[in-house]
Amino acid sequence: MYTTLVTTGQLNQHLDEWLVLDCRFDLADPDAGRRAYAAGHIPGAFFLHQEDDLSSVITEQTGRHPLPDPNRLANRLAALGLSEGRQVVVYDDMGGAMAGRLWWLLRWLGHDAVALLDGGFPAWLGDEMDVSKKPVMVQSGNFEYHLRPEMTLSVDDIQQQLYKPHLTLVDARAEARFLGEQEPIDPVAGHIPGALNRPLMDNLVDGRFKPAGVLHAEWTDLLAGRGADQVVHMCGSGITACHNQLAMEVAGLTGSRLYPGSWSEWIRDPARPVATA
Question: Which residue among the candidates 99, 235, 247, 258 is catalytic per the annotation?
Fold first, then answer.
C-alpha cells in the first residue's frame, strides 16, 4: 500500500489494477482541467472537478471551497470503482497543489491506500508514458466511508485555541499574500495572527517533492520544537494546505490536521483578527 507518493514507473506497472484520478484544475479558469483531461490523460484515469466533485456549495459563512458532503463523495468514488483497500493514485499538473486535496479527502473518508503521483502529468509526459483520449469504462466498487472528523478543526476551534501554545497554524500561501502585500483572490489581505508561513512550492524541486530527509530538516527547522500533532494546516480555501500535510507525511512527521475553511472563511467575520507584515 502506498500512502504518500508513487513514481511514474510504479503507476505504469499497475495501471490495470489501481484507481487513477485526474485532479487538474485552475482557480482562474475552472474549466481548464476538463479541457486538459479531454486533450489527453493517463490511460484509465477518471476526472474529478475541484469545485463540482470535491467541494460543496459556498455559503455566506464558508470559505471558497467548503468540504464536500462525505456521503456524496464516497458514492461518487464508489461509482468510479473504489473498493476498500484498492490503491488510488491522484495527479495534477501543478506539483500536487490541486491533487493533494483529494489525497487528503480520501484519508478523511477512512481510505489510507491513496498516493500522489510525484511530478504529476508533466512527469508522466516527460517519461514518455502513454496518454489516452478515450472514455474510461466504469466498474463500480463497494466503498463505504468511515469519516475521521478528528483530522479537522473548525473556525470556532481556531478562534478558541488561537493563542494557545498547543496550536501551530501553518499557512501554505505565497509569502506576499501571507504578509498582506498583495491579495489577488480574497477581499482581505494578511494572515491569522501567530501563523507560520510555509509556501507549498517550498516542498518541491523541479516539480517533484524534495527527498524525505530534506523535507524533515526544513519542517523541523520551521516548527522549532513544536510537535507535528500541534500543526494545523491552512491556505486560501483549504486546497493547497493539503500539500503541506502531505509533505510532512513524506518527511515522517505525522499527526497534523487541517483547517478546511482557511483564510477565505476566517475573513467572513470582520471581528476576527488579521495580521500583516
Answer: 235
